[in-house]
Design brief:
It comes from Limimaricola variabilis. Keywords: NAD, Oxidoreductase. It is an enzyme of class 1 (oxidoreductase). GO terms for molecular function: malonate-semialdehyde dehydrogenase (acetylating) activity; methylmalonate-semialdehyde dehydrogenase (acylating, NAD) activity. Its EC number is 1.2.1.27. β9, α7 and β10 form a beta-alpha-beta unit. α3 crosses α4. The protein is about 40% helix and about 20% strand. The chain is α/β, with parallel strands linked by helices. The termini are far apart. The protein has 2 domains: about 270 residues, 3-Layer(aba) Sandwich (Aldehyde Dehydrogenase, Chain A, domain 1), CATH 3.40.605; about 190 residues, Aldehyde Dehydrogenase, Chain A, domain 2 (3-Layer(aba) Sandwich), CATH 3.40.309.10. The protein is built from 16 helices and 23 strands. About 50% of the residues are buried. The strands form 6 sheets. A 7-stranded mixed β-sheet has the order 15-16-17-14-13-19-20, with helices on both faces. The protein has a 6-stranded mixed β-sheet with strand order 10-9-8-11-12-22, with helices on both faces. Strands 1-5-4 form a 3-stranded mixed β-sheet, covered by helices on one side. Bound molecules: nicotinamide-adenine-dinucleotide.
């Protein structure tokens, strides 16, 4: 049995708390490693090291910091296969999907190569007589990130790449379910030239998270995970005076207008609903066809596609559309919610409850499910299922469909499929959701835009990656300067415009 480590001060360090968590291979159900769960003392140690290393890194000019990012991109590409395999083994997603996970993080590293440009401040020459005014963006010090299981490469990189490019030290507390790739990412950063102590990985659970939230030496916290924990971390982190951004769960609606290309809409829904076994915060989990005739055509197009989806382990290569879910508890929760949908009267058009995979009976596989005639009062509509389950809610009109997306408490992503530019434009303008797709089912913004939901899908004001991340990981200092003899005329006592 492998024993995992922390990565502190540039070394793999054994856990010291005596507490461990099991790391599973979701395809076989076997425990493949023991993960140490850090105590507050181990967090203290990482913060101490980060605080000692950070000033030197902040004083390294931004172009040199960017060169580390450049080399990091090369190393990520070099090790792509290794990273993807480790990721799939702990998460369960297919190898091409795991490579996409690394790739979408890598693109944020590429964006961060622009740090020298992105960190340039503002300057006003002659803001008053003999007065210049300028602002600069300075790093915060030590930042921490708490990340979910479903993107073990991408989401840590979304956080630590901009944080480090801005001159901060970063402590990552990854998910207990998929810790290998975060450890590999930290090692690779040092191979790229990052000084020891600037990127550290401390594994743990609530105890480590609480130690991070309360630590005086940590200036900012980024969190991605479920909404109840996002809300907890946002509240507690802010109460401890930290800068905090938290991204939570989702229930993403896709509206299908009567004029949509039904084959394209169905293909899009299958990929967006069942890819990664539905374990994506940008998965479409609710299909909203407008009009009964559209709904009937949609269900007819979806049913054969969903029934022919191939579920299996990542080791089966291209033969698999999606893998197992992450834990036995996740599987149980998904099947419980499916049962609640049946009990509440929703029509189970594709029933995956009896799915079994020969040779993998202990794996956490869940078959694909499709519900029709779901209504907003049902638990399967209100809750995030985070599994291969798509719910169809029939809407009588466009306004009714829009209202559904607007009234749901989650607001991460949404999409509309239509050939009508007017409907698409109206939807994009009015819907109260952070990321909108027009004939695009998973509208994840690219690295140079920013990622973030609305409503209970996000807490805090700045988004992830893009220019927002450079704002989140720096603070502005504004200098008003008068040279060379501004004070020789005596002091000024009134607060007045610079005329
Ligand atoms: P999770 O909330 O269970 O865990 C996320 C992190 O929080 C982990 O590092 C975990 O160790 C920690 N944590 C868990 N319970 C805690 C507690 N009681 N106190 C302190 N820390 C705790 O989420 P998950 O199951 O790993 O990930 C799935 C969730 O993440 C889904 O809800 C999904 O929608 C969401 N997600 C959101 C986004 C986004 O950008 N909005 C992206 C990916 C995933």
């Amino acid at each position: 049995m492998q024993e995992q480590t922390h990565y502190i001060g540039g070394e793999h360090v054994k856990g010291g708390s005596g507490r461990f968590a099991d790391v599973f291979n979701p395809a076989t159900g076997e425990v493949q490693a023991q993960l140490p769960l850090a105590s507050a003392a181990e967090i203290d140690r990482a913060v101490e090291i980060a605080q000692a290393a950070q000033p030197g890194w902040a004083a390294t000019n931004p172009q040199r910091r960017a060169r580390v990012m450049m080399e990091y991109v090369r190393l990520l590409n070099r090790d792509m296969d290794k990273l993807a395999e480790a990721l799939s083994r702990e998460h369960g997603k297919t190898i091409p999907d795991a490579k996409g996970d690394v790739q979408r993080g890598l693109e944020v590293v590429e964006f961060c190569i622009g740090a020298p440009h992105l960190l340039k401040g503002e300057y006003t020459d002659g803001a008053g007589p003999g007065i210049d005014m300028y602002s600069m963006r300075q790093p915060l010090g030590v930042s921490a990130g708490i990340t979910p299981f479903n993107f073990p490469a991408m989401i840590p990189m979304w956080m630590f790449a901009p944080a480090i490019a801005c001159g901060n030290a970063f402590i990552l507390k990854p998910s207990e379910r998929a810790p290998s790739v975060p450890l590999m990412l930290a090692e690779l950063m040092e191979e790229a030239g990052l000084p020891k102590g600037i990127l550290q990985v401390v594994n743990g659970d609530k105890e480590a998270v609480d130690a991070i939230l309360e630590h005086e030496g940590i200036a900012s916290i980024g969190f991605v995970g479920s909404t109840p924990i996002a809300q907890y971390i946002y509240g507690k982190g802010c109460a401890h005076g930290k800068r905090v951004q938290c991204f939570g769960g989702a229930k993403n609606h896709m509206i299908i207008m009567p004029d949509a290309d039904m084959d394209k809409a169905a293909d899009a829904l299958v990929g967006a609903g069942y890819g990664a076994a539905g374990e994506r915060c940008m998965a479409i989990s609710v299909a909203v066809p407008v009009g009964d005739e559209t709904a009937d055509r949609l269900i007819a197009a979806l049913k054969p596609r969903i029934e022919s989806l191939k579920v299996g382990p990542y080791t089966s290569g291209d033969d698999v559309d999606f893998g197992p879910v992450v834990t036995a508890a996740a599987k149980e929760n998904i099947l419980k919610l499916v049962q609640s949908g049946v009990d509440a009267g929703a029509e189970l058009v594709v029933d995956g409850r009896d799915f079994r995979l020969q040779g993998y009976e202990n794996g956490f596989f869940v078959g694909a499910h499709l519900f029709d005639r779901v209504t907003p009062d049902m638990e399967i509509y209100r809750k995030e299922i985070f599994g291969p389950v798509l719910s169809t809610v029939r809407a009588g009109s466009y306004e009714e469909a829009l209202k559904l997306a607007m009234d749901h408490e989650m607001g991460n992503g949404t999409a509309i499929f239509t050939r009508d530019g007017d409907a698409a434009r109206d939807f994009a303008n009015r819907v109260n959701v952070g990321m909108v797709g027009i004939n695009v089912p998973i509208p994840v913004p690219l690295a140079y835009h920013s990622f973030g939901g609305w409503k209970k899908s996000a807490f805090g004001d700045l988004n992830q990656h893009g220019t927002d991340s450079f704002k989140f990981y720096t603070r502005t200092k504004t200098v008003t300067a008068r040279w060379p003899s501004g004070i020789k005329d005596g002091g000024e006592f009134n607060f007045k415009p610079m005329d």
